[in-house]
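pasting for ref. prot 1 ->
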Amino acid sequence: MRGPRTLVREAWAVTRAERVGTALILVVVVAMCVSVILTTGRSIGSERAVLSSIDGEGVRTIVVRADPQAEIDSTVVGRIRTFSGVEWVGAFGPAQDVQVSTLPEPAPVAMRTLASTDDGRLHLGRFTIDGPSGEASADALRALGLLDPSGDVTTTDGEDVAVTGRLDVPSFLAFLQPLVVQRTRSDQVGPAAVIVVLARSARDVEPVATQLPAVLDASDAKFVSIQTSHELVVLHRLVEGQLGGFSRALVALVFVILSVVVAALLYGLIMMRRKDYGRRRALGATRRFVVGLVVARTVIPAAAGAAAGTGGAVVVLRALGDPLPDVGFCLGLGILALAAAAAGAVVPAIAASRRDPLSELRVP
């Protein structure tokens, strides 16, 4: 009677025999899981929605502006890219006005060089022609008076630059619009006037911004300014802390209640069927086996209740159109439900294992 296979078989038999107790445990776990999903789960879904709305690229953007006196060049990109909290970094050169000289009233647009960790963020193409070339955003094309992303523009120095493609400017670079990016070779080093750093998350903004002055290698720090969305970063941290703390406290309270309720139910069931456990002890069952039997017969309906309660609550949230918690939360909820039920079964299981076989089997 000591093998794990025997224990599982006996636990399944007891679960089926004690239908009232099994149903009570099942209902309690279902109710607890449903209450957690519909309260904390909904809160976590809302938290994710709120945080995603204030965790956009604009919040995660750090803008470094450097005057020519700072003497910062494009090699700074290689130093900044080593930061673990950086998703993208680009160093834009000083603005140089370009225009379509063949138009009667040409409008100047700023053209900049760019050195970055990933040109794909702007969909920059490869070099296709010899000589100076660049790509323009949709706003820049309209401002220049070009219908298509092709043509020639002229700098204020009289140099012709061929427009060979269209830029897709992401939202965190919108402040540079209208933008023309002049193509440069990967080994070409030039001055950096605007350095844009995109952090991986809002939490990474402050650490990255703190480390930047050490790697900029500016000749004079007073000619450098670093800008971040500090207020939004603080708001992100505040929302995350408040909602997260409330959710954890509520989950802890619910599962403490679950453990207490399961313990009370099992203790009552054991008192009602104490002679059965007395017979098992008289037939040679060890105390460890009895403890395992009680815990296992509790976990079986608890597992079914956790699955049914979690699945049913998710269906309800989806039907109501409310934010859904992620899969990790749902799996963690099921594991916590099983752990709480098993913890609640320990004390009644120990009580059952200590029943005296002689006193329980004595006939009055």
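and prot 2 ->
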Amino acid sequence: MTSSSGQNISRSNGASEETAWTRLSTAFNYATSRVQMDKEVPDPPPELKEWSQNTSLGVFAGLMFGGGTQWLRDRQAGPWQPPATSSLNKAALARLQAEESSRRLVRLANETLRGGLRFGALAGLFYAVQQVSSIARAEKGLQDIIVAGTATGAVFGATVLGSKGLRVRSSALGTALGAGAGVVGGLLQETLISYLPEEEQRKYHMPPSIPVTAAQQKELEDRADEKRHPGRYPDATAAVIAQLQGSLDRNRPAAARATRPDL
């Protein structure tokens, strides 16, 4: 690749990065702006839409996990049993059983809500950091998952109740665990994505916030094709030199070729 083409690629990358950060700012302004009742609400930016969808999945998983664990605990405790030495009548026993059922229902709703909030907060932070990292790098990959896992683990460890020293140690431990989980999860995700068609792989690795022109898309396809078939594309510099040499040979006068055949 020539130097001029390298300069063009660097300029296009800078323009894409500027556009990406501009769209990220637009998404933040959309999320924090007040809605005018007399105006139509515009469609959300793709960054905010993707983040909300991923966070909603985390909230739903938290609701299921919190409610499921509490339901299992109540089931292991067994049905309510009246006191063995109770001398209450049937109406009083029925009232106590109804109160116990109400308490179990309240505990189930409480744990379900807590699970949704906890998982939703962690998922929102994880996907926000992952998206910001992918926008800054102009592509999605393993590095974004590791960064998001590290940040989420650090914040989760810092929320542990206790002294400042305990929180610092918990944050350091959460950072290490988050980075390790990010590496494992990222490698697993990259392995699964490698089985998808090439078009789907390009859609995943290219964030929706960065507009891709037809020329950039053609360049990405040529690079991927060149990696699959290394000998298909000749050297561009050698091709230009050969073309110039052929043009000089055709335009050289016949007398000069007869006098100096080495030219």
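Residues 1-18 have pLDDT under 50 and may be disordered.
Residues 138-215 form one domain.
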